[in-house]
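User: Can you fold this complex?
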Amino acid sequence: MKRLSFIFIFFISLNLISGQEIDNDLLEIKKRMDSIKSFNANIELDVDISFINMPTKYGKVRYKQGESTKVTSDDFIMLPKRGLDLTLTEIFRHPFITVNRGEEYHKGVLCKVINIIPTSSKSNFAIATLFMDTKAKRIVKSEISTKTEGVFTTYLGYQNYMDALPAAIEVQFAVNGVKIPLRFLGKETEVDRKVIKQEGSKTGKIFLRLSEVQFVK
Amino acid sequence: MISLIRSEIYKIRKQSKTLYALAAILIIEGFVIVSAYYQGAGIIDLLLANLKDSFEFKGNLLNGNLIIYLILNSLWFHIPLILMIIISGFLTSEYKDRTLETVMLQPVGKLNFILSKYVVSIVFTLLIVLLLAVSTFLVSYWIFGRGDLVVYLDGLNFFKSDEAFYRLIYAFVSGANSMIFFSVVSLTLAVILKDATKTWIVSAIFLICSNLLLKIDFQNEFLNELFFSKLTDSWQYFFYYKIPYSTIYFKNFMLFGYTLITMIIGIIIFKRRDIQV
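Assistant: Here's the predicted assembly.
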């Protein structure tokens, strides 16, 4: 009987969800982002992962509507697989529904929180949570649970109230330690297998700073 | 003394073993470059495998700086082994060919003779390391180009190309000091053992033990810091993200002291011993 009532409630909920439309504030933000046809900017990149020591890297970021964001650099750079989708193109690529989760403060700003649930199996994320500053019409935080690449949490910082593009982006994600081929080890390097096993995954962070943003019409 | 050194340099130039040494160095270099060319991408993939879930990589890590670093790692064993074999031969061949007796019949002091051997051995070692460094930099940059260097030492350390360049140069300079130590040890062993084969075997054992002892924790701070085998790795410290300069200076200074002591022991033994083949 309990199982039957669970199935009943599940289908009722599913029916209610499928009846929901896409959040209007999200559509407003998307419309604002879509007004950006193309931009170029300088990018500064820092990595904060316990087992990686990397100097600040510099490069250039180029965005053109309809294409994925391209980052180029003379140096070797590591870019997060998520967090650079500033125009929400990836989220809007496949159909989805939104669920309103109420309001929450983020860094002193009252934000509307919504869940995005893809309705297509082609989508490469399972669920996303967006924190929207509805007054400034922009996203300030997102949590994207991907199907295969883990959870990415992105914090977006803006220089002023009017900006549509963030000046600072922080992407957090879970990352496992490195596997090291023995021949690559230095003599001083000691591998403590027990410690490596115990460590499991760690939180990594990438900080990106955009500067000299030039919008191309 | 100067004429003795000139004479030793002349002998080295004329000896075929010098060419063998140079060939061996270039063959090692060639092997590393060829294996890196075919397998290097695989090594990098394996190294960064766990990061691929979260990151996209832009740029090429299989570049000249990585190849130079891989060749630099031959300073652990291959280069000192070749140097020890060749340099011990500078003296053992004199015993074997009985030229030592002939030289000693001339108005040549034993001290000056053995000292010139040590001086020439050190110069030869420096030239070999220089040859290795110059050829490695030229060939690696020519074939693989320049780029950021990644090294696993207390984590994954990434160095920008320019920074990697000077770190690699400093490592070769510091490594030369370690090579001088092994060269001087091999010549001292040649003084003691006289016979070429015995000297080669003991030199090889010395090098193997030295490498093994480097990894062993003596549970004693004094031994861990001052024992000779713990001092031969100073060049590796240039690949820590923050270079521990004081440790590098200390290790090099102490190793230079060991080199001098080993040389003095060799000179004393040679001076006291009758020249008999």
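Chain A has one domain: 23-215. DSSP finds four helices and twelve strands in chain A.
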